User: Fold aminodeoxychorismate synthase from Cerrena zonata.
Amino acid sequence: MAGCPRVLLIDSYDSFTHNLAALCQRAIPDCTVHIIRNDQLSLEQVISVLPYFSAIIVGPGPGTPDRDEDVGILKHLWKISDDHLIPIFGVCLGLQSLALAFNAEVRRLDVVKHGQISRIYHDDSELYEGVGDVHAVRYHSLHVDLTHSHHLERLAWADDGEENGVVVMAIKHQTKPFWAVQYHPESVRTSGGGEDVLRNFWRSAQSWTSAHRQVLPWDVKLDTLVGNPWPNLLSSSPPQVSTTVTVKTHVIKELCLSVTDICEALGVDSDSTDFVLLDSAAQPGRFSIIGCLDDLSMRINYHLEEPDTIKVTQCGRVTSMPLAPHDIWTWLADFMRTRRASGGDEHLPFWGGLIGYLSYEVGVANLNSTFPPRAHDSSFPQHPDVNMVYVDRTIVVDSFTGQVYLQTLRVDDDAWFTTIKGVLKSHSHSYGRQPEPIKPRSRAKAASSDMTVQLPDRATYISRIRQAKEYLYSGDSYELCLTAPSRISLKSTKLTSWDLYKTLRKRNPAPHAAYLRLGASTLVSSSPERFLSYSRPPGVVCQLRPIKGTVRKGPGVTRAVAEQALVGSPKEVAENLMIVDLIRHDLHGVVGNDVTVKQFCSVEEYHTVWQLVSVIEGRADAAHDHHELGWEALRRSLPPGSMTGAPKKRSVEILHTLEVEPRGIYSGVFGYWCVSGAGDWSVTIRTCFKHDPHREQGCATGNQRQGHNDAGSGVNDEWMLGAGGAITALSDPEAEWEEMIVKVESVLQAFEEAHSQHV
Ligand SMILES: C=C(O[C@@H]1C=C(C(=O)O)C=C[C@H]1O)C(=O)O
Ligand SMILES: NC(=O)CC[C@H](N)C(=O)O
Assistant:
């Protein structure tokens, strides 16, 4: 054998591929893995590199093995001539394509299995020698029938009883070095049938190789064909910066002002200025971050419709600049590189930096999908896809200690500390004010005549759920997060967006809440879901906290009841598990091997719902532990898997056909990227937003613009509010409709209450 073993992993556009690569590196000592897509190289090109590889792994994927677009070169791979033969291990779609190549039949399961764990029976030989009990996770709609295949042998099976009977779970070819499993050895919940089985494959592969072939030493020129070895991390360290800014911090110990009081002291009520608040309105959130913006604050806008231009607004002037040679990600990385800072309070999450949002479509753009064009809906407002402001003066409130921190990145800014302390102290008379009691409310009722709510059409939504389920039955997706927009129109309203936020904060306090007023876009959020946080270097830890599984709170729905309904439900756990595995893959793609599931399916309590939450963390090796790692993690893992389903790319493409309007701000992320290298991004859900074209220049100070203050002037407002939920094969369409409505209501209730107080 020439040097360390090299494995070629063929990916069929799945969302678990990097998990398989990581498993492979655990099971096969010192192995190097190269990942190629199933349609990346021609068969001839693949054959030309085989002499340098020790084995191939054919990964899972959406679709069916008899559709060429789904399997690319796979169907030819199993038929390569004997002089090119190489040991191959197939997983799921990999098994199915092997079976099809040797006359087995591939059929739909009667009851599909997505994210479900089955006991796997085996005869303890070959792949299963010494493996013992196997409980494995399955993600499949199709299965194989070996009756007419005389070359394949069954090695393992599951017994689905009345549902599907006995289902083949592992096979081997009788004469060629081909083995495959139907379940997912790389899933975090597979026990027994993962690493040990791959190790046994490797042993069999080695003994076959020693009798049949020689592996050639690696030639670096081949990297141009099969790419760099996995993990393909970003370059070791970004360009060094010579100067760093120093953060200055002042602490105010006994201010006795709430987060909303502080915002009001800063003039949030005057709707004519930009304003940013990232608010921990409930635990496990702790810090609230308030940006102190002025004319100098730089707002950065990017529209996917104008992909080559970036707009920077400062002092009321808009400068359009060509993006080239950058894309939006590298442009922002460049922007932040020159603004790196040190010396801030180690306990604070944010010292200053970019605050804003990224749309769902910005994430989708990274997937390289091609979509049929949508009919342009002119009533759909064109928010920027990236809308951020560079915040260099901040107030951070620690809700645990009550301490308030003032921070600036500007030099010689002592005068600002003095002024802002004065402003805050003069407002602290509100200390001691009792919060208004929150009355429990019944379900959202018809709004008053000057507030109209246009919910998604029930019949259409339910028919889309049914269509989504067809895709799940056919093997094209394992889970689809279907969503739909609602519209809330307010006529002659005196309700400001800030009033609305304050009510929402009371009505539905959330750990990842926000109030962002950035140019024409205003976002009012009660998001319960962290998408991604990354700590400042050294020792960057990336953490994702996907939520999947929702139960409405109500009389009698205690924690025990919710736990039974969530943790006790195979459907809910499967829904969550699929996203956990998807996120492990996303994170493995950024940090390499060190990815762990810190919490699996815990029930967390929110104001209106119980949710099933998992926590996944990843750490990079020392060479990649730097300022831009977190940003790269964000770029590589958008859009949030919990908002797409799995596999991500195919699911996004399917959702594009099921959902008629772009999601826009909804389903993207909002949060910050700190000058220290840290960042924290929430999933944009339980969030409403509106577009005021007259606010386009947004960073003007209050006295510069008149006549367009939505407070008090009796204007018309149109708000959008997206909501949805994960559809799985086990979904009951009526229950999914209800779940979507529960999520709409969690925000709508605040509208009703706030509106009734401002008519
Ligand atoms: C789609 C939404 O929520 C997502 C779907 C969830 C689910 O299916 O249980 C839970 C949280 C979010 O990831 C939404 O709130 O609109
Ligand atoms: N996980 C997979 O590879 C799934 C294979 C195939 N699309 C099925 O659903 O059966």
About this structure: The radius of gyration is 27 Å. The first strand starts at residue 6 and ends at 11. The chain has two domains: 6-226, 245-365+381-429+447-756.
